[in-house]
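dumping this here so i dont lose it
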């Protein structure tokens, strides 16, 4: 049974039991390929959306399905087995109006591993620079019969707007300060693989909450799956309405980290900040930067995450970021490819997107 933080409960019937762990009649675990095949058959049943625009509004079975399928892709990727026929003949366009290393590259890799034709639109050399609007750019790409459109934009709501105009399935790769749904899914997969579950944990999300779409998506996912979520940061970087999202608010790192299973650090987003919200990087690190001394206040087996890119010495000390016993940061990147494969695969079978 999953108990959401709003009191709603979900039974854990068969569909919650991951085929990657279900054993055959001989007692042997299923092969990665068999487990994966079982999950593919369930995509249409458990994920009924045409797009992935936000975590807010998704139900636990939808999130669980994406995580289970992503887990099967981790096993397949690690075993070197490719699935190059699943998206053969489909076109994926990466449309990034903002800089990205991890998200853009992992969507490209994910699409290629599934056999899609992948196009990276470089906005800096596109007709956007001649004044073409977002809508005209999207309708132009739509006329080329793109199937999957991955969009990153500095304006909150841009992917949502495009989803109403184009025929393609739209995936939000981060919009302004709104949401970054695939980041929250990859974070959840990383947590689940280390803690054995994605529910009943205490997660402290620390730093620049105001400007963080990663924080918002993680808050929605983690509370929906029945975790206790804390947000920790200075009052100047804490949105006034954040407590309405079902989280506990802390301005003191020691109190916010006490008893946490997971410490999720966020980048200080200076490019989105008005001046004067943070006195200096040095002072910010003193009060809110994660070093081993502050980490010792969390549970002894607490694990550290960061979505990247990191500002070392500002929100996180290098010794913590690179600590192989405590840091999951590199593994988060690996999970990003698997999660994006699961999302592309699921949406390509969804309503209106079938081959
Ligand atoms: N975490 C994340 O979105 O990283 P990029 O900006 O490099 O894509």
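and the seq i came up w/
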């Amino acid at each position: 049974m999953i108990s959401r933080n709003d009191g709603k409960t979900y039974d854990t019937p068969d569909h919650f039991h991951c085929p990657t762990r279900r054993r055959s009649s001989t007692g042997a675990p299923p092969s990665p390929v068999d487990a994966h095949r079982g999950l593919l058959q369930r995509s249409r049943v458990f994920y009924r959306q045409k797009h992935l625009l936000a975590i807010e509004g998704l139900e636990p079975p939808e999130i669980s399905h994406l995580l289970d399928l992503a887990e099967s892709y981790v096993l397949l990727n690690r075993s070197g087995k490719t699935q190059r026929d699943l998206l053969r003949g489909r076109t994926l366009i990466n449309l990034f109006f903002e800089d990205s290393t991890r998200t853009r590259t992992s969507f490209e890799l994910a699409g290629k591993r599934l056999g899609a034709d992948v196009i990276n639109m470089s906005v800096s050399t596109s007709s956007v620079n001649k004044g073409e609007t977002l809508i005209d750019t999207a309708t132009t790409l739509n006329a080329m019969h793109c199937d999957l459109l991955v969009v990153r934009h500095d304006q909150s709501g841009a992917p949502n707007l495009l989803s109403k105009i184009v025929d393609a399935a739209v995936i939000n790769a981060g919009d302004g300060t709104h949401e970054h749904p695939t980041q929250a899914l990859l974070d959840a997969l990383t947590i689940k693989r280390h803690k054995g579950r994605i529910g009943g944990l205490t997660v402290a999300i620390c730093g620049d909450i105001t400007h963080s779409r990663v924080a918002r998506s993680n808050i929605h996912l983690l509370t929906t799956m029945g975790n206790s979520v804390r947000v920790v940061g200075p009052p100047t970087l804490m949105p006034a309405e954040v407590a309405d999202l079902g989280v506990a608010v802390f301005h003191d790192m020691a109190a916010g980290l006490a008893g946490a299973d997971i410490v999720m650090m966020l980048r200080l987003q200076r490019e989105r900040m008005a001046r004067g919200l943070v006195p200096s990087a040095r002072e910010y690190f003193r009060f809110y930067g994660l070093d081993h001394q502050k980490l010792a206040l969390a549970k002894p087996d607490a694990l550290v995450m960061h979505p990247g890119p990191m500002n070392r010495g500002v929100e996180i000390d290098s010794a913590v970021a690179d600590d192989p016993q405590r840091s999951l940061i590199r593994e988060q990147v690996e999970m990003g490819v698997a999660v994006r494969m699961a999302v592309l695969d699921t949406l390509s079978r969804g309503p209106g997107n079938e081959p």
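The radius of gyration is 20 Å.
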